Amino acid sequence: MLNYRLMPDDEGDIWVYDLFWNKKLNEHIAPAALVYTELMIGNDKRNKETANIIFNEYIKPNL
Hints:
By secondary structure, the protein is mostly helical.
């Protein structure tokens, strides 16, 4: 808690995850699968359109 300056919250627990992609590939760009997932979570039509572009250009060819 001290390292990240976290404060206790009555609403629940805090989840901390390890980095799950290879940061050496490119430090400034998130993996396409992560960006795709984030865009698909919401109900915004424009986000879903962008997610589909990312899927078709970067994810689908590698399946």
